[in-house]
DNA sequence: GCGACAG
DNA sequence: ATCTTGTCGC
């Protein structure tokens, strides 16, 4: 009988591992002006049996696509709030290996420090690859915050008790905000600047959109069904 | 015990 | 995340 996941970890083990690795996360800038920024997107196929990771590298600051890759592997871990990285990281690492160039900054689809144990997907991926990373989530996992202005670019700190764990950013006027947090080797201030610099006319940064688009195009090729626009 | 809960 | 057409609003 196959193991439920190659991490060979139970949820309790996964939580213990997060608590062990969290101290290694670097919360200050250890990044030089990046030329290649990557967007990561993970999706599921065949009723969740297959995990698909898509990654797109854009030139910065022009945001022109310069490389991309996709990886599909059997799903190895269930979705459990707080343990998302154990489900998505394996496929993402494989996709990164397929790239022809190395990204200098990763914009992850999920939380970084804005996590119960301060070790969300962005922290985990940043630590494993040693590449500066940022968590960019569409919805909140934990934390509270004040109301934020409707104007694009405004933001308010995301708090957990008396601790700043991230920022709630209005990336598009009049739209629901996104949740930005430190992943690894970057400060929250820089993270916000890069996310805004990578965002043009949509709510999500172009990196994330490019990865998402790549996945949908690739899926349509496999499905034989036209992609939607 | 009762909610909340990234993708 | 995923299953899915039309519809509301700038």
List keywords for this structure.
EC 3.1.21.7, DNA-binding, 8-stranded mixed sheet, 28% helix, Endonuclease-V, DNA repair, single chain, alpha+beta, archaeoglobus fulgidus dsm 4304 fold, RNA endonuclease activity producing 5'-phosphomonoesters, hydrolytic mechanism, 229 residues, 5 helices
Report on the structure:
- The protein is α+β, with helices and mostly antiparallel strands and 229 residues long.
- A hairpin with a 2-residue loop joins strand 6 and strand 7 (163-169).
- The chain contains 5 helices and 8 strands; from the N terminus they run H-E-E-E-H-E-H-E-E-E-E-H-H.
- It has helices at residues 11-21, 84-98, 121-129, 188-197, 206-223; strands at 36-45, 50-59, 65-74, 105-108, 133-137, 155-160, 163-169, 178-184.
- It has an 8-stranded mixed beta sheet, sandwiched between helices.
- It is globular and about 45 Å long.
- The longest helix is centred in the last third of the chain and has 18 residues, at 206-223.
- Helix 2 (84-98) packs across helix 3.
- The chain has a domain at 25-144 and 183-222: 2-Layer Sandwich (archaeoglobus fulgidus dsm 4304 fold).
- The model has no long low-confidence stretch (mean pLDDT 94).
- The protein binds 2 DNA strands through strand 1 and helix 2.
- One of its GO terms (cellular component) is cytoplasm.
- Belongs to the endonuclease V family.
- Mg(2+) binds at residues 41, 109.
